[in-house]
Design a protein that fits this description.
- With 115 residues, this protein is mainly β.
- It has no helices and eleven strands.
- It has strands spanning 3-7, 10-12, 18-25, 33-39, 46-51, 57-59, 67-72, 77-82, 91-99, 102-105, 109-113.
- Strands 2, 4, 5, 6, 9, 10 and 11 form a seven-stranded mixed beta sheet that branches. Strands 1-3-8-7 form a four-stranded antiparallel beta sheet, with no helix packed on it.
- A hairpin with a 6-residue loop joins strand 4 and strand 5 (46-51).
């Protein structure tokens, strides 16, 4: 059974930072494309960042230069470092692992950027 544990979300002021973590069991991250998505109320889920098995990453235009995705295959972990946070970054953030034609999702962690 595949399980994810996401952590690191919370309330932060504009301009602040958060680091999201996602740990998985029941799946090997080594062969997976890992990504972070987010969904704000009333909006569709959108891709924030993705990192390939070789380590190359891509980002949504709205977060380029502020967010960094990274992975540690030895620990089966994926991270999202978020800096210079803006109110429009507020959303539920989900980690996702895509492998062998199947996408596996975490339960989501809430990020709220507000003064």
């Amino acid at each position: 059974q595949v399980q994810f544990v996401e952590s690191g979300g919370g309330l932060v002021q504009p301009g602040g930072s958060l680091r999201l973590s996602c740990a998985a069991s029941g799946i090997s991250f080594g062969g997976s494309v890992l990504s972070w998505y987010r969904q704000a109320p009333g909006k569709q889920r959108e891709l924030v960042a993705a990192i390939a098995t070789g380590g190359s990453a891509n980002y949504a235009d709205s977060v380029k230069g502020r967010f960094t995705i990274s992975r540690d295959n030895t620990k089966n972990m994926v991270y999202l470092q978020m800096n210079s946070l803006k109110p429009e970054d507020s959303a539920v953030y989900y980690c996702c692992a895509y492998t062998l034609g199947t996408a596996y999702w975490g339960q989501g962690t809430q990020v709220t950027v507000s003064s």
